[in-house]
Amino acid sequence: MLLARVAGTVVSSRKETRLEGLKFLLLEQLGIDNKPTGGYVVAADAVGAGVDEVVMYASGSSARQTEYTDQRPVDAVVMAIVDSWEVGGNDVWQK
Amino acid sequence: MLLARVAGTVVSSRKETRLEGLKFLLLEQLGIDNKPTGGYVVAADAVGAGVDEVVMYASGSSARQTEYTDQRPVDAVVMAIVDSWEVGGNDVWQK
Amino acid sequence: MLLARVAGTVVSSRKETRLEGLKFLLLEQLGIDNKPTGGYVVAADAVGAGVDEVVMYASGSSARQTEYTDQRPVDAVVMAIVDSWEVGGNDVWQK
Amino acid sequence: MLLARVAGTVVSSRKETRLEGLKFLLLEQLGIDNKPTGGYVVAADAVGAGVDEVVMYASGSSARQTEYTDQRPVDAVVMAIVDSWEVGGNDVWQK
Amino acid sequence: MLLARVAGTVVSSRKETRLEGLKFLLLEQLGIDNKPTGGYVVAADAVGAGVDEVVMYASGSSARQTEYTDQRPVDAVVMAIVDSWEVGGNDVWQK
User: Fold this and answer.
1) Smallest Cα–Cα separation from E44: which of E52, E60, E31?
2) Is residue D93 part of a domain?
3) Domain count of chain A?
4) In a domain, B14, yes or no
5) Terminal CA-to-CA distance of chain E, rounded, Å?
6) How far apart are CA A3 and CA A39, in angstroms?
7) Residue of D nearest to A59 (CA)
8) The predicted structure's pLDDT at residue E76
9) How far is E50 from chain D (nearest CA, A)?
10) More confident residue, B39 or D88
């Protein structure tokens, strides 16, 4: 998984039938130091994350292992909202 | 998923039998700022996207989770035509 | 999928039993402008491609979705020989 | 698989139901020379690894092939604690 | 698949139960010109490869399509020892 900040949302009215009801979040990837790495991904939302929240997302077939994304053509899913992470015993980020 | 613009099409007459009937789109990847990143991918079309349209595509095994691509040797699929996306409450792109 | 040119072949006599009978092609990846990108991959051949031909290949689990590669430990397959591709209405490459 | 050092942990209270009970480790990737490469990944822990330990992790669908991660939306798992590795007959790292 | 040279081995005594009996090889990736690219991967051995041998490895779910790696948490497998490869009709490497 990678850490990311929810930057915004993507809207689509014409899409594959199996995608109905899914919310697509635009994620800015974060480094271990909580700084943006410059990369992004669009992920389906499985936890009700809001803009600016820090989240974890899973990619590939693992992105389909949630109730919301099962058997749907999505390759990234937000599966957790992050409370905090620490490196070497020190909090790098706390909600 | 990643955002992309449909740049063109790829034609193939000699191909694996299971690919019959699929349309292959040449996609230029877009950054979160709607600028081309320089990367590309060839994706099967599951939504009837046209040249110059902005789309989302899914990669890997998730690309086979549509009616058109099920059990076919394709690793990328256009699964949505994008209406708009926003970052920090502002529209970056609108159809 | 990505575009590539068949640069050569790889020969192996000592290999996993399930690989018997497969032909391995050395592919040079091509950009959308038909220039080599510097990357390569070794792919199983599912379409009888010859050296110098321009092809498309699929990666990951999708590489196993052909009659030749089903349940075999290969992560890339040539699944189409390319006739042509166009960008913005102009042919970039034609066989 | 890649080699990595456990740098810390990630805490999440609001997450996909199937993730309950999993521990998330923040891994700094190591090169073959035992130096950090600058990359990181968050992985589920299947072996009880502690901070500062050197581990191996598997990515993608293979990350779900453990008792702890089966059918869960995780794309990386720590599946081994490394005792040592050698290159050209010389130990590069030993526990 | 990618070409690689077996650089060494990785030893682990504390690991996921399903990994018992597998041998882990440290692979240095090779370019099409037989020069190291600087990248590496740790792969399970399905063919009895020795140090310094040139091999091919498969990644992702395809790495589990061998008798040795079936249903195990490994994402890379050495599935062939390479005899030779050629580019444009000339041998680049021969055993």
Assistant:
1) E60
2) no
3) 1
4) yes
5) 19
6) 11
7) D75
8) 98
9) 11
10) B39
Q: Which residues of E touch C15 (CB under 8 A)?
A: 47, 79-81
Which of D27, D47, D56, D74 is the mutation pick for testing E, counting most E CBs within 10 A? Answer: D56
Q: Which residues contact B52 (CB under 8 A, 6 or more apart)?
A: B5, B6
Kindly list the residues from chain A whose CB atom is less than 8 angstroms away from the CB atom of residue D42.
Answer: 1-3, 56
pLDDT at B88: 86
Count of CA atoms in the C-beta half-sphere (13 A) of A46: 28
Positions of chain C with pLDDT under 70: none
Q: How far is D5 from chain E (nearest CA, A)?
A: 14
Chain A residues with at least one Cβ partner in B under 8 Å: 7-19, 24, 26, 28, 40-43, 51, 60-61, 63-64, 71-76
Q: Based on DSSP, count helices (H) and strands (E) in chain C, helices before strands.
A: 0, 8
Q: Smallest Cβ distance to B59: which of A8, A28, A75? A: A75
Give the closest-approach CA distance of D84 to chain E in angstroms. 5
Query: Under the phi-then-psi rule, with left for phi > 0, alpha for psi from -120 to 50, and beta for the rest, what region is A60?
Result: left
Q: Which residues of chain B fall short of a pLDDT of 50?
A: none
Q: CATH number of the domain that E6 lies in?
A: 2.40.50.220
- Residue A79: pLDDT band (50, 70, 90) is very high
Task: Please name which of B74, B61, C54, D8 lies closest in space to residue A69, comparing C-alpha atoms.
Answer: B61
User: How many beta-carbon pairs below 8 A join chains C and E?
Assistant: 99
Residues B37-46 have pLDDT tens digits of 999 999 999 9
User: Contacts of residue E63 in chain D, CB cutoff 8 Å?
Assistant: 62
Whole-number Å distance between alpha carbons of B20 and B18: 6
Q: Report CB contact under 8 Å: E73, D56.
A: no
pLDDT of residue C88: 87
Count of Cβ atoms closer than 10 Å to residue C89 Cβ:
7
Nearest to A3 among D42, D61, D75 (CB): D42
Residue B51 in domain = yes
Is C93 in contact with C73 (CB distance < 8 Å)? no
User: Domain range holding D41?
Assistant: 2-85
Among candidate residues B58, E73, E39, the one with its CA nearest the CA of residue D60? E73
Q: What is the rounded end-to-end Cα distance, in angstroms, of chain B?
A: 19
Chain E residues in contact with C43 (beta carbon < 8 A): 1
A20 DSSP assignment = T
pLDDT at D88 over 90: no
Listed residue (E77, E82, E91) closest to E27, CA to CA = E77
Q: How far is E2 from chain C (nearest CA, A)?
A: 6
Least CB-CB distance to C58: which of B10, B71, B73? B73
- B92, part of any domain: no
Assigned token pair, B40: 């590309």
Residue B14 structure tokens: 């000699």
